[in-house]
Amino acid sequence: MDTCYTTVDLFPALPFTTASNTITDLTLRIDVDGFLQSGPDTIDVAVENQSHGGNLPLALKLTRNVSNSLHMQ
Questions:
Q1: pLDDT block averages, 10 residues each, the chain of length 73
Q2: 25, 31, 41, 47: which could join 69 in a potential S-S bond, CB 3.0 to 4.6 Å?
Q3: What is the pTM for the complete model shown?
């Protein structure tokens, strides 16, 4: 089932350039706390603790939170 499939565009905060025969470092920041807490999509694990199977609204909430927790620097 692809309902929860998503893509994330990770654009860095600052423009960067690359040059031939050089190495350009980019840092992927993952805000793990954001997986469960993200504004209106906060997940209360005491009552929202099962997303596998038929709980599609919770699975989509988790997908949004994870997507919003990834940042490129």
A1: 86 80 88 89 90 87 92 84
A2: 31
A3: 0.76
